[in-house]
Amino acid sequence: MTYRRSTLFSASQLAANRAILRALKLLADYSPPNRAFSKEALIAIDAEISEVEQREFELETTLAAVRATRNDLSSKLHEAVLGAKAAVISQYGADSDAIASLGLKKKSDYRRPGARREKPQE
Description:
The protein is mostly helical. The chain contains three helices and no strands. Helix content is 61%, strand content 0%. The chain is elongated. The N and C termini lie far apart (94 Å).
C-alpha cells in the first residue's frame, strides 16, 4: 500500500532525502530485498523529481509573465476608462444623467456649503 501525503514536502526534507540517496550510491554492497528500495529505483525517482521540478519552474515563469501581461492590460484599461469618463463629462456636462449612468455623482448632487456665520465680536 502506497502512503500519500496531502501536504508538500519541505525543501529541507527533500534535500535530506537526496543526501541519503548520495550516501546510498557509495555503498557498493547495498542490495535490499525489496527492489523498490534499490539504488536504481531511488535514482529513477530522483530523476523524475528533477524533471517535475524543472517543469514547475517553467510553469511558474510562464505564470509570472502572464500575470505581468494581465497587470499591464489592466492598467491600460484603467487609463482608457478614466479617459472615457472625462470624455463623457466633456460631451454631456458635469450635471447630466449620462454621468450618473456611469456611477459618478452629478455636480448638483454634491452638498453646497452653507452660509458662514460670523463669529460674534466680543
